[in-house]
Amino acid sequence: MVVNEQNSMVVINKLKFTYPGIDGHPPPGSVPLIEDFSLTLDAGDRCLLVGSNGAGKTTILKILGGKHMVEPEMVRVLGRSAFHDTSLTSSGDLAYLGGEWRREVAFAGFDVAIQMDISAEQMLFGVSGVNPQRRAELIKVLDIDLSWRMHKVSDGQRRRVQIGMGLIKEIKVLLLDEITVDLDVLARADLLTFLKKECEERGATIIYATHIFDGLENWPSHIVYVAHGSLQLALTMNE
Ligand SMILES: Nc1ncnc2c1ncn2[C@@H]1O[C@H](COP(=O)(O)OP(=O)(O)OP(=O)(O)O)[C@@H](O)[C@H]1O
């Protein structure tokens, strides 16, 4: 979607992927789940990834997040291989926030354990190297009450703290896998505004997989439609 791939934040180049069988290899004769998928995104891009259940959105985000191994040249994030260069995620430059940590009490990043009676304050202030202004903004945007105890809060309240934890570092490439399901309408709108600002002001790149389109009319710079593991349609939105 941009001309110069060298400076691009995310480059997916003819991505092909099959989930491995029990021996760690793709079952013989299996058809790749993702096939010939290419996409390039630049700083500031906000890409909506849409498609039906099972289309492959989560798989693509997880590959980008370095959670599945593919050939290094197929997926480059900040010019590096997401799977092989673990410093991408450990530095906080790249983050995948997905649905799976919604049900497990836990976002276990940044060495903060939360499967216990712990307050939102202890969590959010327990992360080192954080810009205090950013933390304060996130607490405001997500309307987090610092006295919340994580074992007693509602799903939506826990979700807010988890999103706050997930966004607390100044991430350069952010992969969001339907993170707003538990949020009420206002919290979702505020979060989307915050995320858009991240792209416009800091040049972050966000890929957001979702089925919920409410309030997204003016949000994306790109929309990518996936079906059967292939890119079917890519739209660049006019500002
Ligand atoms: N760990 C796994 N092992 C084998 N197959 C898997 C695995 N995870 C997902 N799949 C298969 O890959 C396909 C794509 O799944 P994926 O979760 O990427 O879809 P999705 O587009 O995110 O769907 P949804 O909108 O329901 O979240 C599905 O057919 C699914 O059964």
From TrEMBL:
Transmembrane feature ranges: none
GO molecular function, one term: ATP hydrolysis activity
Domain ABC transporter: 10-239
Gene3D superfamilies: P-loop containing nucleotide triphosphate hydrolases (3.40.50.300)
Highest taxon in the source lineage: Eukaryota
Family matches, as SUPFAM superfamilies: P-loop containing nucleoside triphosphate hydrolases
Pfam families in alphabetical order: ABC_tran
SMART domains given in the database record: AAA
Keyword annotations of the record: ATP-binding, Nucleotide-binding
Name the UniProt record assigns to this protein: ABC transporter domain-containing protein
